[in-house]
Design goal:
Layout lengths: L2 H12 L3 E5 L12 H9 L20 H9 L4 H12 L7 H8 L4 E4 L5 H8 L4 E4 L2 H5 L7 E5 L14 H10 L1 H13 L1 E5 L6 H13 L8 E6 L7 H15 L1 E6 L5 H12 L3 E7 L9 H23 L3 E4 L6 H15 L5 H4 E3 L9 H18 L2 E6 L1 E3 L5 E3 L1 H12 L3 E4 L5 H12 L9 H12 L6 H15 L5
Parallel strand pairs: 1-2, 1-5, 2-4, 3-4, 5-6, 6-7, 8-9, 8-11, 9-10, 11-14
Antiparallel strand pairs: 12-13
Helix pairs in contact: 1-12, 2-3, 3-4, 5-6, 5-12, 13-14, 13-20, 16-17, 19-20
């Protein structure tokens, strides 16, 4: 995908302005019945047949909606269609398409599919779906935090009201007036990605045409369509003309992929880069000597000053901070984050820029404590796209100052989950160990350009006291570089 388009989609996702319109192709890997498989046994008694190639694959069946109407016209025909829908879409497996879609922080999802795979995937991902099927559902207040799924053509649980026959399509605009208004509004306010969708459904094309008539060409919002280049085999001229039509008349830009199996990776990449404005600051430092010691006070002041300047600079660039309130680090991080958000943005924006996961303390059972802390670390990494590691010292049971194993655990989880890790090696402790490890395997950790490799080395050389400003700038330059997709 072109970097310009990809970064535009990432920005929309980060701002809550990205929505999806999902078609039947998205559910193909779910092992559900497809339109051909649904209609064929119903039309057999009518002496109708679907076109197939010599290998038995369905080809060019453009009359499925009309065939469904022929079935519905027969005695108890609609009942047979309803039974086929209920049976055909009640089973199946959640595919990687739905799993990766569920991980994205999308504002809303629209679909013409009857099946429940998207909402099931959201529940598996500990998210609550708000399924909207009819006009009545639109009037109900959405639960806070729930992700709305608009099922444009109905749900398999209520097959009588599923849009499948030609008369259903004809009645669609009368029966779903509020639905259509909501979709028009969303198409103006949001940026849509159409996936698994062919634009052969007459209702969506009609709605897009109405938008074109009501808006000027310059005001038509931009949307995107994922299309597989395999589809243009033997139809290259038609394929290019159709792409041109979508762009010229509806401002829909095509995103070409070689195979529909690439969709999960595309969604993973979107999620990875969209999370890179959420930065998990991991680290700890301890009270190595008596608090009354003047050297101790100066050292802690220097540490707090560095953490504060770094955090303020990150928030000043509109990054969100994720914190587990690490020992000796958390207070400086949180104070700087809240202060900067308040001063630069607004009093109400502080919650937007700080995501807190304070570790539960005073847990007597060590096994339970480890289980809980591991869960907290995983949640912080799941929410983040970048991890900054600093210091990493603690006092053990023998009152000895040692490297903090908790910081190493957070680093291991972050690496396993694909975060971009920025270790400020010059701060010492476990972070220096991590910095050395990454320096030995730069490519594995994403330091794959001369620019990033040079900056990584500086993270271990610049003193956080004497070269504080330069070190903060070095971190910011790395963050800025890895937040932008380059293809």
């Amino acid at each position: 995908m072109e970097p310009t388009i990809f970064n535009k989609l990432v920005n929309r996702l980060q701002s809550g302005e990205l929505a999806f319109y999902i078609g039947a192709g998205f559910s193909v890997p779910c092992k559900l019945v497809d339109w051909n498989g649904l209609i064929e046994p119903l039309i057999s008694p009518l002496n109708l047949k679907l076109k197939k190639d010599k290998d038995g694959n369905y080809i060019g069946n453009e009359d499925l909606i009309q065939f469904a109407q022929f079935v519905a016209n027969q005695p108890e025909g609609r009942k047979k269609i309803n039974e086929a829908i209920r049976e055909g879409f009640s089973k199946g497996v959640i595919s990687d398409n739905q799993k990766e879609l569920a991980k994205l922080d999308v504002s809303e999802i629209w679909t013409t599919n009857y099946d429940p795979m998207i909402e099931n995937a959201l529940r598996e991902n500990k998210k609550e779906p708000c399924v909207i099927v009819n006009n009545k559902d639109l009037l109900e207040k959405e639960k806070k935090g729930a992700i709305p799924i608009y099922k444009v053509h109905g749900d398999y649980c209520d097959p009588e009201n599923c849009v499948i026959t030609s008369s259903d399509y004809e009645d669609f605009f009368e029966n779903k007036k509020n639905f259509i208004y909501a979709l028009k509004t969303a198409l103006i306010r949001k940026t849509f990605i159409f996936a698994g969708f062919s634009f052969k459904d007459p209702d969506v094309k009609y709605i897009l045409a109405e938008l074109r008539h009501s808006l000027t060409k310059d005001n038509m919002p931009e949307h995107f369509w994922i299309i597989c280049t395999q589809d243009k085999k033997d139809r290259e001229v038609e394929y290019e003309l159709f792409k041109e039509d979508l762009k010229k008349n509806y401002n829909i830009t095509s995103i070409e992929i070689n195979d529909f199996k690439e969709i999960p990776q595309l969604l993973r990449d979107l999620s990875k880069y969209a999370k890179r404005n959420r930065i998990f600051i991991s680290g700890s430092y301890c009270r190595e000597i008596d608090e009354s010691d003047d050297d101790y006070k100066k050292r802690t002041n220097d540490i707090d000053s560095f953490i504060s300047d770094l955090t303020s600079s990150l928030v000043g660039k509109e990054n969100q901070i994720v914190s587990g309130y690490g020992l000796g680090v958390g207070s400086a991080v949180i104070t700087a984050c809240l202060r900067t958000a308040y001063e630069k943005y607004s009093a109400s924006s502080s919650s937007k820029y700080l995501i807190m996961h304070p570790f539960p303390r005073n847990i007597a059972n060590m096994a339970e404590k480890e289980r809980l802390w591991k869960s907290y670390r995983e949640e912080m990494c799941d929410e983040s796209g970048i991890q900054i590691v600093l210091f990493g010292r603690k006092i053990n049971e023998k009152k000895e100052v040692v490297n903090a194993d908790g910081v190493k655990k957070e680093f291991d989880i972050a690496h396993q989950k694909g975060l971009f890790i920025i270790p400020i090696g010059s701060t010492g402790g476990m972070t220096n160990v991590i910095w050395n490890e990454i320096c030995k395997e730069m490519e594995e950790f994403g330091y794959n350009s001369d620019f990033l490799k040079t900056k990584l080395k500086k993270l271990g050389e610049l003193d956080y006291v004497k070269n504080k400003a330069e070190l903060v700038d070095c971190v910011l330059e790395i963050v800025n570089d890895v937040q932008s997709y380059k293809g």
